[in-house]
Each structure stands twice: as C-alpha cells, then as structure tokens.
Amino acid sequence: MKRAGILGVITAGIFFLSCGQPQYTNIDMPPKRIKLIKDFGEDVSKMLLKELKKELKTALKTKGPVGAIDVCSKKALEITQEVAEEIGDIEIKRTSFKYRNPKNKPDKYEAEALSFFEKTLRETGKIPPYYIQKINGEYRYYKPLKVQGVCLTCHGDPKSMDPKVVEKLKELYPEDKATGYKQGDFRGIIRVTIPEDVVKKSCL
C-alpha cells in the first residue's frame, strides 16, 4: 500500500467503536479517535510485516538459515525506515524486552506497552489486539507480535537450532536475548508513532 492509500485511512476513517468494546489505551479517548489510530497503525504494521516476511523468505530460499540472519542484522532496520519514509509523517520501530539488536532496545514508553501486553497475557491468557498511548504531542500504536514457525530458525531453543546459526548469532550479537521461544509465544511489538496534529485534523 502506497503513502496515499495509508494516509487515506486517517483522512477518511472516522468511525465509532461498538458500545462496550474495551479501550486498550493509557488515557481515555473518544471511540472514533481510537478507531482511527488503530486502523492506521494496523495497516502500517501489516505493510511492514509483509515486506520483512518477503525479504526473509527470499533469504532462506537463496542463502539458507545462516544467510537469512543478515535480514535481521542488516536489512530489517533498513526496511522499517523505508516503510516509514514511504508513508511519511510517522515513525516505526520493532522492539522487545528480549531484543537481539541493541538498536531495538525499548524506551520507557515502549517498556510500559510491553509490560501491558505481558501482564494481560498472564492474567487472561490472551494477548490484547493493540495498545495506544498519548505521549508528548503524539500517539503511539502498538501491535503485538507472536512467534511464527519460521521464526524458530534463529529465535528458538539454541539446543534445537542449526549449530551454524547459533555460532553466527554469537558472532553478530554476543549479548543476544532473543532465543528460547516456542511457536505462539509473545515476541514483542511494532510501534507506529503518529503526530497528534495529524490525528486532530482527521477527527474534525
């Protein structure tokens, strides 16, 4: 989806949430604003995941598991930045408490969001579909990520992973925190930041 299509979600997407639907936010917000931010953040997140998945599949097919690590070590941050620039007026980041690349370490607001997802999962057995923060003149939309089967290639139990993959990860990330997962585990979040003035204009 190109920039015009994504931004169209904001400029045209004025809808109301169903009565009684929970608000996964750090402050009370009008339902139409939540709907607008949620739809926009979800579209951007899916756009990023589509690009990352395509790159990863290509790398696995042409270079094998060890070669695919380059997608995470070199390409993932580049792709994330490219998607943000294509859309414009936003920022995107992937983060987790168990991060691999130090550049993806969560800030305090992202840590709050991660804690919200983890706490809710412990208490209810379910991961909330989103979380929205209003902070310092911007809105942050968070999409939770689960571990997929293909992710276990380099995020699973090191004892079950290809020894060459384990060796390469130790070489690239000596302080790696991102292994030991099982399929379906909560992995982390995508954060989409939208300036408050953009949201306000769309809510008029």
Structure report:
It is a single chain. The protein is α+β, with helices and mostly antiparallel strands and 204 residues long. It is 51% helix and 14% strand. It has helices at residues 3-12, 31-87, 108-124, 152-155, 163-172, 196-202, and strands spanning 91-95, 131-135, 138-146, 186-195. It is globular. It starts with a helix and ends with a helix. The model is unreliable at 1-19 (pLDDT under 50).
DSSP strand count: 4
| Structural class designation | alpha+beta
Radius of gyration: 18 Å
The H-and-E topology, N to C, reads as: HHEHEEHHEH
Question: Which residues sit in consecutive blocks of at least 5 with pLDDT less than 50?
Answer: 1-19
Please tally the helical runs, counting DSSP H or I stretches of 4 or more residues: 6
Outline? globular
Please outline what is shown here.
The chain has 204 residues and is an alpha+beta fold. Helix content is 51%, strand content 14%.
Summarize the SSE layout with pairings.
Blueprint: H1 3-12, H2 31-87, E1 91-95, H3 108-124, E2 131-135, E3 138-146, H4 152-155, H5 163-172, E4 186-195, H6 196-202
Antiparallel strand pairs: 1-4, 2-3, 3-4
Helix pairs in contact: 1-2, 2-5
Keywords:
204 residues; alpha+beta; 6 helices; 14% strand; disordered N terminus
